[in-house]
Amino acid sequence: MARCSQGWVFLLAVLVLALSTPCSQAYLKHKKFKTKTDVYLSPKFVLEPGVSSNKYFYNIQFPKGHIGLKSFNAEVVDAEGRSTPLNETYLHHWIVLRYYARKSYVEPKQQSPYQLSESDVIWVENSGACQPGSLGQYYGLGSETRKTATHVPGRYAIEVGDGKGLPDGFEERWMLNVHAIDTRGVEDNLGCTECRCDLYNVSRDPSGQPLPAGYTGGLLCCTDGAKCRLKRGFDGEKKNHYLRYTVKWVDWSEFLLPAKIYIFDATDIMNSSAPAAAKHNCQVEYDVAKSCNATGVCLDNKWAKISIPTGGYVIYGVAHQHKGGLGSTLYGQDGRVLCSSTPIYGNGTKAGNEAGYIVGMTTCYPWPGSVKIKNAEPLTLVSTYNSTQMHSGVMGLFYILVAETL
Ligand SMILES: *[C@@H]1O[C@H](CO)[C@@H](O)[C@H](O)[C@H]1NC(C)=O
Ligand SMILES: *[C@@H]1O[C@H](CO)[C@@H](O)[C@H](O)[C@H]1NC(C)=O
Ligand SMILES: *[C@@H]1O[C@H](CO)[C@@H](O)[C@H](O)[C@H]1NC(C)=O
Ligand SMILES: *[C@@H]1O[C@H](CO)[C@@H](O)[C@H](O)[C@H]1NC(C)=O
Ligand SMILES: *[C@@H]1O[C@H](CO)[C@@H](O)[C@H](O)[C@H]1NC(C)=O
Ligand SMILES: *[C@@H]1O[C@H](CO)[C@@H](O)[C@H](O)[C@H]1NC(C)=O
């Protein structure tokens, strides 16, 4: 309550100020709301023709303090800082995870996040909706990153650095996972970006077990260092790359309203009566079989019914799909559209508009208050792909920001 009333006193002060100066100016000039921008480079990763690089970078550079994140944009650049086009370096995905680590703890290189020491690391995942340890990131995109808006509108922001649940002797840190595939000289471009196991000559998973029956492609086959089949005799130099990421943020203040992150997965099989850790079963990836109906329409719809215990107002939404994706929609219980997001395919040659690649996703910015999710409302997520040909290891994710207060 104290928090709330202070906020109102402050709001009143801004309104009073607004009588003497135009409101927007008074609002923007106040240093508390000044948006700061930091641009960072990830540690380097080295690529050579055909090679898949899937790196985990721990304790990355990130704005410090109790802040509200306003946007996170990223792209792959080369050693000279030039944007690398997708037809040479395919950006499969990047994700950013938040965690608390014992101050003295040094993360071992190249361990995946859920393999780190459990007594030294506490993952601070988003608000849901997958099982713990799955899709818990704060941000994450793929080839679409250059043309996908990520900003949080208005007075909303993603609150971090608040120290909630931070044990003594621990500090907040961030991890960046970058998965890129160098497709210079490859025999089958689509197959390499879709991580086809035969092209990578992989028949066992990273732990040495045979691949699951029927597994033709996906993350198990384009692990770090795996190499996709090249055209005979192709040779190309090694190249250094970096993920350049731009974070916009504001110092946290009573005037800001927290936005919660939820990520839905079209492969989720939800069991409401199961205990919390087993309620969801997000697979992250799935395959699209080649299939057309009697009238020659070739569409694949993957859908899941999912709910979140505490609803609120949707203030932002975006889907994540791979090549072949035709869009994704999140529906409410009565069939109303909460948000629909479609891929933007490039049609040029330059980085940001590469022909045939998904270079952006459309986003939703509903007027705050206009799109409401009720507590535990059954939602339906539908992810549509073009099934003229088969696709392996595709994704059907949907990221939304929910505000519980207006
Ligand atoms: C990528 O596209 C550019 C522009 O069309 C072209 O010049 C270049 O050779 C292509 N690179 C590869 C590896 O296909
Ligand atoms: C494929 O992997 C097998 C062992 O798993 C190996 O014997 C074979 O040489 C590999 N082929 C190529 C072309 O790398
Ligand atoms: C859902 O979870 C409950 C409790 O764990 C279990 O008894 C039930 O078999 C599960 N239902 C399905 C369809 O998996
Ligand atoms: C094929 O799919 C399209 C699009 O979903 C639909 O309009 C059409 O009725 C379908 N045709 C048949 C024969 O099922
Ligand atoms: C590429 O797409 C844009 C936007 O959809 C369009 O305006 C432009 O004419 C297209 N360019 C080519 C070369 O097709
Ligand atoms: C699906 O893909 C095929 C070939 O890849 C293409 O010809 C067709 O136009 C696509 N359909 C849609 C609806 O995008």
TrEMBL record:
Tell me where the signal peptide lies. 1-26
For this UniProt record, the keywords arranged alphabetically read as follows: Signal
Q: Does the keyword Signal belong to this entry?
A: yes
The UniProt entry, under Pfam families, shows: SURNod19
Asked if the Swiss-Prot or TrEMBL record annotates the protein with the keyword Cytoplasm, the reply is: no
Fetch the InterPro entries from UniProt: Stress_up-reg_Nod19
Q: Which residues form a coiled coil?
A: none
The name of this protein is: Stress up-regulated Nod 19 protein
The protein's organism comes out as: Malus domestica
